[in-house]
Amino acid sequence: MDKKLHELKYNYKQKYDKHFTSQDRNAIYHKISNKHNSTHKNLHSSFRVGLTFVAIIMIGFLVMMNVFDSREPASDPEIETKPENEMKPNPLQDETTFEGYVVHVQGSQATVTNIDTRESMIFRNIIPGNVMLGDQVKGWLEYTLSSEPPTASIEKLEIINDKSQNGSNFNENFAVRTALKETILKSYGTSNYDDLYVSNIDYSQDRHRWYVELYNSNMDKRERVEVSDNTGYIAKPHKPEESFQSEYTFNYEAYGQQFKELEQMIIWNLNSKWTELHHLSRQDYENRFGVIENIDYSYILNGAAIDENGTVTIDFRELKASSTSNETRKFINEIKRLVFQFDEAKEVYIQFNGSLKDTPFEISLNTSIKRNENEEPFDLHEDMLRTNKGYIGTFKYLLQYNDDGKLEFESQKDLESFFTRYMSEELAQEHIDTYIHEDQGNFYVNFSYEQLPTAIDRELFDAIKINDQTFEVQSDVQTEHGFKSLKYIIKYNNYKWYVDSVEVSPM
Question: What residues form the membrane-spanning segments (predicted)?
Answer without folding.
Answer: 49-68
